[in-house]
Write a structure and sequence with these properties.
392 residues; 11 helices; 42% helix; globular; binds alpha-D-galactopyranose
């Protein structure tokens, strides 16, 4: 399935909203995708590997320069307005979504890049707060708008790093580099293998006949922020005790030999990360060759590790894992994102997508009483302007 830029209805709707809000037409359209990780939970901040898929659900920003220092925003998803001056550094407490755009402006300015005011309507098909990086999509789409209006050009990897900085330093979330890299560096029809040590990527085609389905538990990720920070500090503690820079720097054989030097929880976290890192490379090979049995096995091992060693799986995720594995057409399934609820991911047979979707919905509803969302997605290109919609 090819990702297509042109979604006429969506464009019409956003243009109409822009007209209602600002009384004119947008002059440029930016987009940036969300992402789902196919393998590599929490490996990014351990400087390891991630196999990530920039997805065909994205954030659009329709914008028009307003010849001022004000950025005036309307979120179509939240039906909320927000604005800020490019000369102010105060975060918004009541409209936290504004901070992603303002944070990007702030780091661009710190880099000496020109930022100008604009009016914009933001419209996203990335489900919000469900582990698919809606915040990175908003940051990266904002960076594209600032770039187009400011008249400078950043390479996609530099843009990704600046957007990560916006999230780390301005928004105040200590995420790794995965989300912004995925959003900026996507390639059509390919997953990306990201090496978080040297920040290189290589495209990994998904074997013919396979498709990615994202299954949203719709369980709130309330504990996610605190638990994420805890996992991160446990991994750092492991590296410090082992005398290495990051868990990327130890093999499973070495770790097994020294595991008794680590406190129990830190040991469990390390065992997961080191095995997960290897699974990323193994999954790359299995996806290239289309080895379905191996894919299923690797994804299942990842889930067991996430549940028993890294301990990021909540009861709704365990129910969703079962619902996915019992659905027709499934090749493999596992957790996604930071865990603790939110979305999970399955590789499925392309021609069974509809039956898979219906079966997951029925299985999960029966087990939990909640209706899940299932999104069948394609690989999408990285952040940029929507070419055919650029106006002179
Ligand atoms: C969140 C973070 C990423 C990454 C994942 C877990 O999405 O933003 O940097 O750590 O969790 O793999």
């Amino acid at each position: 399935m090819l990702y297509t830029y042109t979604d006429g209805l969506r464009r019409e709707r956003v243009a109409q909203l822009f007209h209602d809000k600002f009384g004119s037409e947008p002059t440029l359209w930016a987009r940036a995708p969300g992402r789902v990780d196919l393998m590599g939970s929490h490996t990014d901040y351990n400087l390891g590997y991630v196999l990530t898929l920039p997805i065909s659900r994205d954030t659009w920003i329709a914008a028009r320069p307003n010849a001022s220092r004000m950025v005036r925003l309307y979120s179509a998803n939240l039906n909320e307005d927000a604005s800020f001056s490019l000369d102010e550094q105060e975060k918004s407490v009541s409209k936290r979504w504004r901070n992603y755009v303002q944070g990007v402006a702030s780091v661009l300015q710190a880099e000496g890049l020109r930022t100008d005011g604009f009016d914009a309507v933001i419209h996203s098909t990335v489900p919000l707060e469900s582990g698919l990086s809606s915040s990175a999509a908003l940051e990266c789409a904002s960076a594209v708008v600032f770039q187009a209006i400011g008249g400078w050009t950043l390479a996609p990897d530099a843009m990704a790093r600046l957007c990560q900085r916006a999230e780390n330093e301005f928004v105040g979330v200590r995420c790794g580099v995965l989300d912004q890299y995925s959003s900026c560096l996507g390639e059509e029809e390919c997953a990306l293998l990201l090496d978080c040590r040297n920040l290189s990527t290589r495209p990994v085609p998904i074997a013919r006949g396979m498709q990615v389905a994202i299954c949203d538990t719709r369980a709130p990720r309330q504990l996610a922020a605190a638990e994420y920070a805890l996992r991160r500090s446990q991994c750092e503690e492991a590296a410090a005790r082992l005398g290495i820079r990051a868990l990327r720097d130890i093999t499973m054989a070495e770790l097994s030999a020294r595991a008794n030097q680590l406190p129990v929880e830190v040991r469990k976290r390390s065992l997961f990360i080191v095995a997960e890192n290897q699974r990323v490379l193994d999954l790359e090979a299995a996806l290239r060759s289309g080895n379905r049995a191996k894919i299923g096995q690797l994804l299942a091992e990842s889930f067991v590790g996430a549940r028993d060693l890294f301990e990021i799986c909540s009861p709704p995720m365990i129910a969703m894992m079962r619902a996915m594995l019992e659905a027709p057409g499934v090749i493999g399934a596992r957790q996604a994102g930071a865990g603790f609820g939110g979305c999970m991911v399955a590789l499925i047979e392309q021609d069974r997508a509809e039956t898979f979707r219906a079966a997951v919905a029925a299985n999960y509803r029966r087990a939990t009483g909640t209706h899940p969302e299932v999104y069948v997605v394609a690989a999408a290109p990285g952040a940029g302007l929507l070419p055919e919609m650029v106006r002179a």
